[in-house]
User: Which sequence fits this backbone?
C-alpha cells in the first residue's frame, strides 16, 4: 500500500521536474495578480493592507486552478490513468500520491511566495504568521477541490472554463475563513475560530478527498 | 513467476451483452466464454466495438445489459481480486512521453500489487529495448513505445491477458514475438483475449475467433 503511494508520488515529482515551465506558470501568475492589485488600487497603505489577505487568497485560488486542468489530462490521453484504475491496488492510493505531489509542487511554492506578496501589499507584520498558517491548512483543500473538478471534467472538451465554474463555488468557505483569519490578526483580533474551521476543512479534504477523486476518475474513464 | 503457479482453473464468461457507445448500439446479444489455455481473437472492422467490448469485460465501461462473470461470480468495477488476474494492454500505451520506458514501468508496477519474477530491465531487454530504456518515451518510435507497453505483460503474473490491437506499429519481428508471447502464455495455462483488425501471426498458434461488426454490415 505504501509502495503504491510512494511510487505515485515519485512519478509525479519526476514529471514535475521534467516540465518545470508548467510549474512556474501558476507561480508567476500568483505574483502577477498580486502586483496588478497593488498597481490598480489606490496607492494608500490602509486600503492595501485591508484587502491584502483577500487578494492573496484569491490569487492563490486562481493559481491553483491554473495548474489543475493538466492534472489528469496527460494521464488520460496516454492511457496511464486506465492502467492505474485496472491495478489490483485501489486507485485511491495512486490518487493520494498524485495529490500529495501536486500540493508539494504547486501549493507549497504558493505558501513560500506569499510573504513576498504580503510585503508588496503592505500587510502588517502581525498578520503574516496567521496568513501562512491559514495557507498551510487551506491550500490542501484547494488542491483536493481542484483535483475533484479536474477529474470530473478531464474527458470533456473546453474543460478549463467548466473546471473553474465547478470548483470556484466550492472554494468559498476556504476563501472566507482564510482571509478572515489574516484580516482579524492584522487588526489585533483573535483568529482561532477561523483557524479551527480551516483545520476541519483540511481534515475533511484529506480524508474524503482521495476516494472522491478516485470515483470521479472512474466516471471520466467510462 | 509463471502463470502455472496459480490455481489452473478459471473462467471468464459474458452473456447477452448489449453495449452502446454514445448514441449507437455497437454490440447486441453477445455471449462469450474463455477458459485457461484458450485464446480468443476478437476481430472486426473499425468501429465494430472491439475496444468497447474489452472495456466492458474489464469493468472500465458500463454495459447496457447482460452479465460478465469471472470464475462464476459477477465482476464489479474496481474488483481487486479480478483485477489481480488481468493484464491490460490498451490501444493507448499508458506511457508518459516525459519519462523513460524504465521509469514508466517502475511507476506502474506497484499498482499491480505483485512482485514480478523478472526485473524491469530484463523485460525491456526481452522486448528489444535494452539500449533505449533510459530515453524519454517521447523520443521512441510508435513501434518502440508499443514494445515498452507490451513489456508489462512479461512483468505481470496475471492469468488473463486483455490486449487491444497489440500489433499496431510493430515490425515483422515484433509481430512474431508478440505471437510467441501469446502462445507461451496459453501453453502455461493462461488465457488471452485479443482484439486485432489485422491477422494474428502464425507464431500465436490457433485460437478461437469472434467476429464483430454484424451491426455495421446490416
Assistant:
Amino acid at each position: 500500500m505504501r509502495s503504491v503511494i510512494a511510487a505515485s508520488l515519485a512519478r509525479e515529482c519526476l514529471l514535475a521536474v521534467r516540465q518545470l515551465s508548467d510549474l512556474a506558470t501558476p507561480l508567476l501568475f500568483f505574483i502577477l495578480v498580486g502586483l496588478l492589485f497593488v498597481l490598480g488600487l489606490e496607492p494608500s497603505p490602509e486600503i492595501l493592507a485591508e484587502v491584502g489577505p483577500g487578494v492573496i487568497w484569491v490569487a492563490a485560488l486562481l493559481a491553483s486552478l491554473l495548474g489543475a486542468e493538466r492534472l489528469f489530462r496527460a494521464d488520460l490521453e496516454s492511457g496511464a490513468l486506465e492502467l492505474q484504475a485496472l491495478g489490483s491496488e485501489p486507485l485511491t492510493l495512486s490518487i493520494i500520491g498524485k495529490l500529495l505531489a501536486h500540493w508539494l509542487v504547486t501549493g507549497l511554492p504558493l505558501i513560500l511566495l506569499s510573504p513576498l506578496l504580503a510585503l508588496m501589499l503592505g500587510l502588517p507584520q502581525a498578520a503574516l504568521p496567521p496568513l501562512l498558517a491559514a495557507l498551510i491548512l487551506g491550500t490542501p483543500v484547494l488542491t483536493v477541490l481542484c483535483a475533484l473538478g479536474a477529474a470530473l471534467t478531464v474527458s470533456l472538451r473546453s474543460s478549463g472554463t467548466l473546471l473553474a465554474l465547478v470548483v470556484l463555488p466550492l472554494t468559498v468557505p476556504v476563501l472566507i475563513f482564510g482571509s478572515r483569519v489574516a484580516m482579524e490578526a492584522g487588526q489585533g483580533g483573535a483568529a482561532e475560530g477561523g483557524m479551527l474551521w480551516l483545520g476541519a476543512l483540511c481534515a475533511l479534504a484529506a480524508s474524503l478527498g482521495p476516494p472522491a477523486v478516485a470515483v470521479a476518475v472512474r466516471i471520466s474513464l467510462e | 513467476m509463471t502463470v502455472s503457479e496459480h490455481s489452473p482453473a478459471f473462467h471468464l464468461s459474458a452473456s447477452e451483452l448489449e453495449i452502446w457507445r454514445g448514441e449507437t448500439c455497437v454490440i447486441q446479444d453477445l455471449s462469450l466464454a474463455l477458459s485457461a489455455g484458450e485464446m480468443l481473437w476478437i476481430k472486426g472492422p473499425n468501429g465494430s466495438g472491439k475496444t468497447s467490448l474489452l472495456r466492458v469485460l474489464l469493468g472500465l465501461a458500463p454495459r447496457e445489459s447482460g452479465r460478465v462473470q469471472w470464475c462464476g461470480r459477477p465482476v464489479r468495477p474496481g474488483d481487486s481480486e479480478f483485477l489481480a488476474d488481468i493484464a491490460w494492454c490498451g490501444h493507448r500505451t499508458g506511457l508518459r512521453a516525459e519519462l523513460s520506458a524504465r521509469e514508466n514501468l517502475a511507476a506502474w508496477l506497484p499498482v499491480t500489487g505483485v512482485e514480478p519474477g523478472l526485473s524491469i530491465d530484463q523485460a525491456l531487454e526481452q522486448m528489444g529495448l535494452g539500449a533505449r530504456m533510459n530515453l524519454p518515451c517521447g523520443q521512441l518510435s510508435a513501434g518502440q513505445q508499443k514494445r515498452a507497453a507490451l513489456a508489462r505483460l512479461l512483468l505481470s503474473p496475471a492469468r488473463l491477458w486483455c490486449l487491444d490491437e497489440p500489433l499496431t506499429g510493430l515490425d515483422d519481428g515484433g509481430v512474431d514475438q508478440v505471437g510467441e508471447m501469446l502462445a507461451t502464455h496459453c501453453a502455461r495455462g493462461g488465457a488471452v483475449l485479443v482484439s486485432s483488425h489485422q491477422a494474428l501471426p502464425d507464431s500465436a498458434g490457433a485460437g478461437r475467433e469472434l467476429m464483430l461488426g454484424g451491426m455495421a454490415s446490416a
Observations:
- Residues 12 and 73 of chain B are 9 Å apart (CA to CA).
- The mean pLDDT of chain B is 84.
- DSSP finds seven helices and nine strands in chain B.
